[in-house]
Design a protein that fits this description.
- The complex is a heterodimer.
- Chain A is α/β, with parallel strands linked by helices.
- Chain A is built from ten helices and ten strands.
- Chain A has a nine-stranded mixed sheet with strand order 4-2-5-6-1-7-8-9-10, with helices on both faces.
- In chain A, a hairpin with a 5-residue loop joins strand 8 and strand 9.
- In chain A, helix 8 runs parallel beside helix 9.
- Chain B is of the alpha+beta class.
- Helices cover 30% and strands 29% of the residues of chain B.
- Chain B is built from 16 helices and 20 strands.
- In chain B, strands 15-16-17-18-19-20 form a six-stranded antiparallel β-barrel. Chain B has a five-stranded mixed sheet with strand order 5-6-1-7-8, with helices on both faces.
- Chain B is elongated.
- The chains are: A alpha/beta, B alpha+beta.
- At the A-B interface, helix 5, helix 6, strand 3, strand 4 and helix 8 of A face helix 15, helix 16, strand 13, strand 15 and strand 17 of B.
- Strand 3 of chain A pairs antiparallel with strand 15 of chain B, so a sheet runs across the interface.
Chain lengths: 283, 524
């Protein structure tokens, strides 16, 4: 009885948190505040009682290996002034890819390709993938697609997501094109979930608009950890990542780091987390 | 890999064939009687072939029978049968495909077999020739043979060279030159009058012709002598080039290889897209059946649309991998047919697989599994290239250069990677490279050091951490002398953004004014 009571209290304290957007010091706070909830989240809220335990799990690297299906459609919002968006997308994708369980008896090496779709404007701003700088696992697999229009980019993303010989798809789109509306993103989500090919869409300089992505991140570069041999040199890449909406996970903030063969994550105490802890204490 | 052509010459084809046909009359004994085959001409019977005893008695090919009779009154005769000989040769050509996948007739009495990549099945080329001779001996046919890299040289060796010559041409045409230099010019398969001209010029051996040709202006001289002779048989230069494999020599295979082709003639010309799609569906199904029968898949397809007013519209399609899936073909063509102007109507459609590759049968996707499975990579890439263009889909491949923007090239996605040397990865490279390095305005403490602060795309960034310089010199063997070296720095600004910047040139290197700074790459 007491346990049940406790759970109810926690849930009721959590529910408003899901609805609330994390406050940002950035200039587009107003748009963030008014960004409407997407249908997927509303559906979750209705069934919140059943999903309560699942939702309260916190995201961490390697989650895909612990029985949870990797999110098939993620969006990563990043500025176009540095390479953080694509790098974080690659790191997240590789983390999921390495931890996804292979089917029974499938021992052959995974030789599937990686489709990298860029809008031409985005490629002009942040450059094209450079093979010697790509992670070792990805280097030989990249198939690069340059799309002139958002419609073409969406077409290429969907074709990639439908293809069984592709490990994951990375897209880079600039701004908020009209073609990328909720219907389009829902299409991508459904296709990705149906065929099991994850899609990581990097949204450069974009407002977080209506989308059906299962995980939505805000990513920016973070000062790198001290390099091992030369303290004056930039170290391995690090990113400040904020999971601001996800299905099945609590939002949070992390400093993600490239640990060579794995993704490193250091949790940051976020505003949401603090208030949650305080509510638990009060309960 | 050079081609290997086996040339077979049956010097006594007509006589051997007559002997085989009349083996009963001869009653088991060898035909020791002088005997000739004759054909009727306006001037009386002429000798077409003579057996050994006949030749010993003085009968030669082309002689009048009356002249031969004066030498040997006991000459026996039989009618020649050139048409039968040709038919027999054709049968032999098909039979000779046992030694190679492709054979051609070389009338009137020779065969050419392509034995490229085959000899190991017979224990080398010597073993192959042994097997050939054994096969022809079993059929009681006289034979001379040779293997060489070109049809011309094989023919020359078989007809005029030593028995069972094998010309090794794996490295250069020197081997062919050496093997052929002692042969008479008649081995070039030239017309009689050309041979006469050459004989009058004193050129008797191929080696002499070759030597003249080698001496700079020699080729021009021969060229001038035979400048009106267009046909290969009348021009020794063309024949020599064919012999050495410098120009191709088309040969007609005895079993033709034809491109899969399906077509539909329409009772009534079509003018509407829906009908066109229906016909295209039918054509694609026909093509799939045609290709499946041959165990092929199409790499390139050509769709011809014959309009009523005489115009022909052709749409081409190239696939990343062999396919014969009708749905896939239709889908790819659908994007290409949007701008077809039907005019007064289209009366005939033809689909031709001008490039087909072997494609084994595969089990089709079963029921609903196909939906969940998704498409194959080649189908995906076909769709992308048809919609976005061939240049839009590419794969980065390494290229042997130390200049960063040249160290990567873009290749078609499904082509095998070109082989490359492993890289020595002493230095970090950025995740992304800008298409063109962007100029930055720099504030630096010392002119030959790294910058303290720079302005890029309108924003000022403080440099917090630096690694470098990594000096990359210009490729002096392809760039101008004024190209400047580059000093690359990997930097991180105060906010943690990581970039790859470089200074072009040094102060006082005598190649322009103050060095410029550029930002070329974005690190992860």
């Amino acid at each position: 009885m007491e346990h049940k009571e406790n759970e109810r209290v926690v849930l009721s304290s959590l529910l408003p948190l899901w609805c609330r957007m994390p406050t940002e010091p950035s200039s587009d706070t107003a748009t963030r505040q008014t960004a409407p909830l997407d249908v997927a989240d509303i559906g979750c809220m209705v069934g919140a009682g059943a999903l309560g335990r699942e939702r309260s799990s916190r995201w961490r690297p390697g989650l895909a290996g612990e029985g949870q299906a990797a999110p098939c459609h993620s969006e990563i919002f990043a500025p176009s002034g540095d390479g953080s968006g694509a790098a974080a997308a690659l790191a997240l994708a590789l983390d999921d890819w390495r931890h996804t369980s292979r089917p029974e008896g499938c021992e052959a090496e995974d030789r599937r390709a990686v489709l990298w779709v860029q809008m031409r404007e985005a490629a002009g701003l942040v450059g094209r993938p450079y093979r010697p700088g790509l992670p070792e696992d990805v280097r030989r697999r990249v198939i690069h697609v340059l799309a002139d229009t958002p419609e073409d980019a969406l077409f290429a993303l969907e074709e990639g997501v439908r293809c069984r010989e592709i490990a994951f798809v990375i897209g880079e789109m600039l701004g908020n094109p009209r073609a990328l509306d909720f219907t389009a993103s829902r299409r991508l989500t459904l296709a990705a979930e149906r065929h099991g090919v994850p899609l990581y869409l990097v949204r450069l300089d974009a407002r977080p608009d209506l989308s059906s992505a299962r995980m939505r991140w805000n990513v920016a570069s973070a000062p790198s950890p001290e390099a091992r041999w030369n303290p004056q040199a930039p170290g391995t890449p690090a990113w400040h990542a904020e999971l601001f909406r996800a299905r099945g996970h609590r939002p949070g903030e992390w400093i993600l780091g490239d640990g060579g063969r794995q993704l490193l994550a250091k949790s940051l105490p976020s505003a949401a987390q603090e208030s949650e802890q305080s509510s638990v204490v009060s309960a | 890999m050079t081609r290997r052509i086996l040339s077979l010459w049956l010097p006594a084809l007509a006589m051997d064939r007559w002997r085989l046909a009349h083996v009963d009359e001869l009653g088991g004994e060898d035909d020791t009687q002088p005997r000739v085959l004759i054909s009727d001409t306006a001037h009386g019977p002429r000798i077409e072939a003579a057996n050994r005893a006949g030749a010993m008695a003085g009968a030669r090919r082309g002689m009048m029978l009356a002249d031969a009779r004066t030498l040997c009154p006991a000459l026996l005769t039989a009618p020649a049968d050139p048409a039968g000989n040709l038919a027999f040769l054709e049968q032999l050509a098909v039979w000779a495909m046992r030694w190679g996948p492709w054979s051609a007739m070389d009338p009137p009495d020779g065969l050419l077999v392509d034995v490229t990549a085959v000899p190991h099945l017979f224990g080398g080329e010597g073993g192959l020739l042994d097997d050939v001779h054994a096969g022809f001996a079993r059929r009681k046919l006289a034979l001379r043979s040779a293997i060489a890299p070109t049809a011309g040289s094989a023919w020359a060796c078989a007809h005029y060279g030593r028995a069972r010559t094998i010309v090794d041409g794996s490295r250069s045409d020197d081997a062919i030159r050496r093997a052929l230099s002692d042969l008479p010019v008649a081995a070039l398969r030239l017309d009689e009058d050309v041979l006469t001209v050459l004989r009058r010029l004193g050129i008797k051996r191929i080696g002499q012709l070759d030597a003249i040709e080698e001496e700079g202006a020699g080729r021009d001289a021969i060229q001038r002598r035979f400048r009106n002779r267009r046909s290969p048989a009348a021009n020794p230069l063309i024949r020599l080039d064919q012999l050495l494999g410098r120009i191709p020599e088309p040969l007609l295979p005895v079993v033709p290889q034809q491109a899969p082709l399906v077509q539909r003639r329409l009772m009534e010309p079509i003018r509407h897209r829906t009908l066109l799609d229906t016909v295209l569906d039918d054509l694609a199904l026909d093509m799939a059946r045609e290709l499946e029968g041959k165990a092929l898949g199409a790499r390139r397809l050509e769709l011809g649309l014959w309009r009523v007013d005489g115009e022909v519209i052709v749409r081409r399609l190239e696939m990343a991998a062999a396919t014969r899936d009708p749905a896939h073909i239709c889908r790819l063509f659908a994007a290409r047919l949007d701008d077809v102007d039907a005019g007064f109507g289209i009366e005939m459609l033809r689909l031709r697989a001008s490039w087909a590759e072997p494609l084994a049968l595969a089990q089709g996707d079963i029921e609903a599994a196909a939906e969940a499975h998704g498409t194959s990579l080649s189908a995906c890439i076909d769709r992308l290239t048809v919609r976005l263009g061939a240049e839009a889909v590419a794969r980065p491949v390494p290229f042997a250069s130390h200049i960063p923007e040249r160290a990567q090239r873009w290749h078609p996605p499904l082509e095998p990677e070109p082989s490359s040397q492993g890289l020595l990865e002493f230095h970090h490279r950025p995740l992304k490279l800008l298409d063109k390095a962007e100029k930055i305005a720099v504030l630096y403490a010392t002119p030959d050091g790294y910058p303290k602060r720079f302005r890029w795309r309108g924003a000022v960034r403080e440099v917090a951490r630096v690694e470098g310089p990594e000096r990359i010199a210009p490729e002096w063997w392809r760039e101008r002398g004024s190209a400047r070296l580059r000093d690359y720095y990997r930097i991180e600004d105060g906010a943690g953004c990581r970039y790859w910047i470089y200074r072009q040139g040094l102060i006082g290197d005598g190649r322009g004014g103050m060095p410029d700074w550029y930002l070329q790459g974005l690190c992860g």
